[in-house]
Write a structure and sequence with these properties.
Structural class: alpha/beta
Order of helices and strands: EEEHEHEHHHEEEHEHEE
Number of helices: 7
Radius of gyration: 16 Å
CATH topology: Rossmann fold
Strand content: 25-35%
Helix content: 25-40%
Amino acid sequence: MKREIIQTNDGSTTIHLPEWNESYHSKHGAIQEAYHVFIKNGFSLFEGKPISILEIGFGTGLNCFITFLESLKVNKRIDYVGVEAYPVSIDEAMQMNYPKEIDEMRSEFYRTMHESPWEVKQQVSEHFTLTKRIQFFQDINDDNAFDLIYFDAFGFRVQPELWSEEIFIKMYKALKPNGVLVTYACRTSIKNAMLSAGFSVKKMPGAPGKREMLRAMKAV
């Protein structure tokens, strides 16, 4: 499928799929959406302790990159697992302007993140381990392994099967007790699928350009 590099409204880049009219990030702003959804409404909830994170849709690595940067600010140990069925090429990843837009001093980490081998846990810094898995989301079978899930799959319009009760049951199982899942999406059918899987679900204010998003908790 053809992929194009485009610029979003906050100046940051993303990958666009013309055939689907779908992008890896919000056209309103890739970076600002990532910080709002995954850092402000997810990562920031876990203060003062090491956390394990599962990302559904590793994509361009933006969410991993900003999580690494945030971990440096709070000196927090992170065990990060990114799942991706169709990895972007290193060449495509290096065309993203995230280091330049966020922290050019850390551009080497962004490259290391993408050059790290798949299926192998890597100690990419003193406080950050990264495992990238090539895997279909339907094949995820982790059990009680993660504190936080970044659910960043392609939108419901193009891949509704990734937003099903079946998938969210897998997400629920993968989380530890009181674990949290955050996603940019907010659709009634998605919320209902989360509820059916056992989550307690809350609508949150969305990133710029979007009215709402969802945060779900594995309440025990």
